[in-house]
Amino acid sequence: MTATKPLDFLWFIPSSGDGAYLGSDELSRPSDPAYFREIAQAVDRLGYSGVLIPTGVACEESFILATYLSAFTEKLKFLVAIRPGVASPAYYARLASSLDRVSNGRLLLNIVVGGSAQELGGDGIFLPHDERYDHAEEFFQVFNQLLAEGHANLDGRYIKAHNAQLGFPPVQAPRPPLYFGGSSDSAIDFAGAHVEKYLTWGETPAQVGEKIAQVRASAAKRGREVSFGIRLHFIVRETDDEAWEAADRLISKLSDETIAKAQEGFLKNSDSVGQARMQALHGGRRDKLEVAPNLWAGIGLVRSGAGTALVGSPKTVAARLKEYQDLGIETVIASGYPHLEEAYRVSELLFPEIGLGGPRNQIRSSFGEHQVFGGGGHGGNLRVVAGS
């Protein structure tokens, strides 16, 4: 029997800000590029393969932030958003090629077709939900051809490109891989036709398995294969009880009024099927937050998009992740609050349980003797543990 391949594990750059409590400004951290650099450098060293940089009016621009962070990291990959309609495919092709070249082939591309109708309108996008995918089909005809061949032509319904040119090819051939998430029928159809990796938010294993089957069928009709990833938050502690206490603490300053306002805003401003599915997991109620074993929906009370976390000890969370792996999940895009500290917790506690190595390029700390932490005093670490 073949052993399960270790997960490809990415982290998240909270480019709209960070904090220790949801729904509170206590111990919050504003958007700060220097802080994002700290996170990126930490996760680059801690063994994560990459980071997701979100997109939206409340976030720093993802291509610019990724370019900045690439200068301070060595191996980290950057999952950066393309939003068809915000700019032309030729312009996005130039951005993607340049960032892939500057980072020496460390670019991943995240297709974002939907989101807040209010935000889309602000960006000049007024197409109905399903029609946005028709537009995206034409967009990526031009985008893909430019990155692969350096030129493209299309006289489409939505996109017109007459002798479009790209001056420099990306490092990755024919182009950086395309990631995408969406739960509607149109999104599933688009994924099967165009992307390398389909991403789902952290729904229950049964729901995730259903979507994976749908995307596989969509791809198979076209003679294609698609790999799969999941977007989840993590609350990992040494014991299950400690982890659940941390989950309760995260929403301990969150008022019912704030929850109600957030849920109303999601319903009013978004036509996303995925967002509706996230909200249906908890219905805005604090007493229905464990929606599957160790899958906690408390984050989705106020956070749009990915709203669930795996909560538990390293062994418990590893077991839950194995359930998703058995369905076909190969990639995890993770986060936790605050993101710098939780990146360490996940790497130090969870990674050994799921077969991932620790920090990269560690410098030897001794000549081979076993050492234990001695408190950081001038005498250094202890070389012998009593009773060992």
From TrEMBL:
Keywords: Flavoprotein, FMN, Monooxygenase, Oxidoreductase
Pfam families in the record: Bac_luciferase
InterPro entries reported in the protein's UniProt record: Alkanesulphonate_mOase_FMN-dep, Luciferase-like_dom, Luciferase-like_sf, SsuD_RutA_monooxygenase
GO molecular function terms attached to this record: alkanesulfonate monooxygenase activity
Enzyme class, first EC level, given as a word: oxidoreductase
Oxidoreductase is among the record's keywords: yes
Family: Belongs to the SsuD family.
Name of the molecule in the record: alkanesulfonate monooxygenase
